[in-house]
Amino acid sequence: MKKKILLLGSTGSIGRSSLNIIRNYKSKLEIVALSTNKNIRLIKKQSKEFKVKNLIINDFESYKKILNYGLNNKIRIFKNISDFLKINKKKFDVTIVGISGFDGLDPTLKVIPYSKNLSSANKESIICGWKFINKKLNKYKTNFIPLDSEHFSIWSLIKNSNHNMISKIYLTASGGPFLNKSRSKISNAKISDVIKHPNWNMGHKISVDSATLMNKLFELIEASKIFNLPINKFNIVIHPKSYVHALVNFKNGLSKILIHDTQMEIPIFNSIFYKTSETYKKNKDINFKNLNGKNFIKPSVSIFPFLKIIKKFKRNNSYYEIILVTVNDYFVKKFLSGNINFQKMQTKLLKKLKDPYLTNYYNKYPKKINDIYMMVNKVKKYLYENE
């Protein structure tokens, strides 16, 4: 029997990588529904190729447009995930959440009761709403598998281990485009320099976060929440080749590492075929060149000033991480629109996090989901009014 797949965010990078896997395993996988925000041209092509009968278009204007596309009358179009779930009768074997930003939180919570396995790469949902997600996962006995390569690697290395025996977990970072570059080169970096990731083909926003190492700080927070471990159990280490994705040191003297090529398809494949003996069709032998030489470097605060932020995180599900994500989004947007240079973006962000208006919320907590959205909107309003 084919595994039933719900793919949210099918037109984004995670969605397209997921479809590459499904394309090679059509005899074993069936897509029940695809979703997008505005990219209706691409989702139309995807629905035709994979014979998908349910499409979810979250942007209302795009939803109205696709209704006039002359699609097969057997294809049902929904304007949101809630409308689709009303007609759904069975649990999906795997739900993949590839939606970016805060837009992913609400759909993630809504699909949990309908999913046997939930695989997510949505950072904002996990960082800001994990306590609500985890509560639902437990209530509906839904298995959770993280999709980010680092978190999937940690999950793979410790899933059968006693967590009390973990001494330290290392998340690897490529170092971005400015590793070993002079400070003057970094401070005068153009947008084209910043988004030029050395190993991964990513969107502009996440490429900026990689260059500042903010993306890795987010991953530390995610890992702390997902694996229910204190933040001081985690460290960041620079690994320019991006071949090793996680290292775990245990108290019994043993250490484990997980390696794979810089392809998101690998963790996606393994999350879909979890607990099966399916073979990855693009499998390669170990690349020993990527393991040789000086591969691991301790990151420098002078190059990556955002490392100072780690000390502020207390793993208490407060408004702090919600504010951090929102403030970072604001300054990255300013940088990508050409309104601030790379160095000032980092300096001003660190200064803004000390603003009394914001620090007033650092020891307060969201009690319900709407509190998260309320705080995001409140912080955005404050930032734009105090530019």
- The count of helical stretches stands at 16
DSSP strand content: 5-15%
Radius of gyration: 21 Å
Number of domains: 2
User: How are strands sequenced across the largest beta sheet?
Assistant: 4-3-2-1-5-6-7
Q: How many β-strands, per DSSP?
A: 11
Q: How far is the N terminus from the C terminus?
A: 56 Å
How does the major sheet shape up?
7 strands, parallel
User: How would you state the average pLDDT, rounded?
Assistant: 91
Estimate the helix proportion, in percent: 40-55%
Structural class: alpha/beta
Shape: globular
Layout: helices, strands, pairs:
Blueprint: E1 3-8, H1 13-24, E2 29-36, H2 40-50, E3 54-57, H3 60-66, E4 76-78, H4 81-87, E5 94-97, H5 105-111, E6 117-120, H6 123-139, E7 143-146, H7 149-158, E8 166-173, H8 183-187, H9 191-194, H10 204-212, H11 214-226, E9 234-238, E10 244-250, E11 255-259, H12 265-272, H13 320-336, H14 342-352, H15 356-359, H16 369-385
Parallel strand pairs: 1-2, 1-5, 2-3, 3-4, 5-6, 6-7, 8-9
Antiparallel strand pairs: 8-10, 10-11
Offer a concise description of the structure.
By secondary structure, the chain is α/β, with parallel strands linked by helices. Helices cover 41% and strands 15% of the residues. Strands 4-3-2-1-5-6-7 form a 7-stranded parallel β-sheet, with helices on both faces.
Descriptive report:
It is built from 16 helices and 11 strands. It is α/β, with parallel strands linked by helices. It has 2 domains: 3-147, Rossmann fold, CATH 3.40.50.720; 151-262 and 285-385, no CATH class. The chain has a 7-stranded parallel beta sheet with strand order 4-3-2-1-5-6-7, with helices on both faces. The chain has a 4-stranded mixed beta sheet with strand order 9-8-10-11, covered by helices on one side. A hairpin with a 4-residue loop joins strand 10 (244-250) and strand 11.
